[in-house]
Design goal:
The protein is an alpha+beta fold. α2 packs antiparallel against α3. The chain has eleven helices and 18 strands. The protein has a five-stranded mixed beta sheet with strand order 1-4-3-2-5, with helices on one face. A four-stranded mixed beta sheet has the order 8-7-6-11. The chain folds into three domains: 122 residues, Translation, Eukaryotic Peptide Chain Release Factor Subunit 1, Chain A (2-Layer Sandwich); 150 residues, Nucleotidyltransferase, domain 5; 87 residues, Ribosomal protein L30/S12 (60s Ribosomal Protein L30, Chain: A, 2-Layer Sandwich).
């Protein structure tokens, strides 16, 4: 089970064999909630089963339900004791994936011809998420966060997290002489060193970190990167960094000697203005486009415009759903009853189509939406 990435979203947007089961639920990081979560998940699988039985036979239903119940039963401590704030599970005859989320998500179950991804599009909004690079002269960590949470993620492309692992014997000689002049292998763990040790390799170390973070994380995700480091390391790293996502303001502390919550608070205070500025900017663009008859808010019209590739930017209400379906051949949008397994959320289908056509989608709180229909589209033409 992994945290969610843009690659996982792209996999969900790929057509899959129906039925497609989407399950969302908030989860507990610890405490009594860890014991309650498996029961709540079981109830949600039961709801999915009720929807499945409206349109599918046992040969299709049973394998899906068996895997959901086996992989997430109450005895799977390895699953339930290592959750974040939310869980999303997707199952179809040709696809299965479960991802942990750093944000609480309302309970939701849907069986349809495609996966329900609107909550994930909101989760993946660049404006509300960020990376924090925790850097010292000896080690490095990469964190991913949002308004509510900050968690360490795997730093891809780097053999180890320390300068000793990166450069080996150059900074941590494997042999030393004992009192009798005999060669003695150094301990496996990094030795304690003074702040001056490793300085000749500092430039190489920082360049290596900069390269792997850009190649494997910043370039791929587009997330702003906040540097958490002592002031002298801030200056040294910024002098060599080529990371286009590196934010000018950093968190000026030793990341190994402060609580994660403090780093989150300071990082969010840096990111929050960017988030609000981007949201306001898109809303302003919509109003200008509307004055020029280059915007739309009718759900059916916007859905069909999405199929035609006419939408550059789509703003979506985070909470609103409209039962319906966008025909993948004709591009015609029709309304329908969400309780039926062959009916999707038309707003969700529209957002998926915009992404497939190269447009951008931003899911925002209902109080910020410039319309009351659930959609606000800025057209390319």
């Amino acid at each position: 089970m992994n945290t969610f990435t843009i690659d996982a979203l792209n996999q969900l947007l790929t057509p899959h064999q129906a039925p497609c089961i989407s399950i969302y639920m908030p989860t507990a990081r610890g405490g009594a909630g860890v014991l309650e979560d498996p029961r709540r998940f079981k109830d949600m699988v039961d709801k999915a089963e009720a929807q499945l039985r409206q349109g599918y036979g046992p040969g299709v239903i049973n394998p899906l339900l068996e895997r959901l119940r086996n992989d997430f039963n109450a005895e799977r401590g390895d699953v339930w004791q290592h959750q974040l704030d939310g869980l999303a599970v997707f199952a179809s005859p040709d696809y299965f994936n479960a991802v942990r989320l750093q944000r609480k998500t309302p309970e939701y179950v849907e069986v349809a011809d495609s996966f329900h991804v609107k909550p994930l599009m909101r989760y993946l909004q660049t404006a509300g998420r960020y990376h924090v690079l925790c850097l010292t002269r000896k080690d490095v960590r990469l964190l991913e966060g949002n308004r509510d949470a900050l968690d360490e993620i795997e730093l891809l492309g780097l053999a180890g997290k320390t300068i000793y692992e990166a450069f080996g014997e150059e900074v941590n000689p494997p042999h030393a002489s004992n009192a009798r002049g005999e060669s003695k292998r150094a301990p496996d763990r990094p030795r304690q060193s003074t702040p001056e040790e490793g300085v000749p390799h500092l430039d190489r170390w920082f360049r290596m970190v900069d390269r792997v973070v850009w190649d494997n994380h910043s370039k791929v995700s587009g997330l702003p990167l906040i540097l958490c480091a002592l002031p002298e390391n801030q200056s040294a790293f910024r002098a060599i960094s080529k990371n286009q996502s590196l934010v000018a303001t950093g968190v000026n502390v030793d990341p190994n000697h402060v609580a994660l919550e403090r780093i989150r608070q300071e990082a969010w205070s840096i990111v929050e203005p960017y988030y609000h500025e981007r949201t306001k900017g898109l809303i302003d663009q919509f109003h200008v486009a509307k004055n020029w008859k280059a915007a739309g808010e009718d759900v059916k019209d916007v859905a069909e415009a999405a199929f035609q590739g006419r939408i550059a930017t789509l703003l979506v209400d985070a909470t609103k759903q409209v039962g319906g379906k966008l025909d993948p051949q004709s591009g015609r949008a029709e309304f329908g009853d969400l309780a039926r397994p062959d009916v999707d959320d038309l707003i969700d289908d529209t957002a998926e189509t915009v992404l497939k056509m190269g447009g951008q989608v931003m899911v925002i709180p209902p109080e910020l939406m410039p319309t009351d229909t659930g959609v606000a589209a800025i057209y390319r033409y």
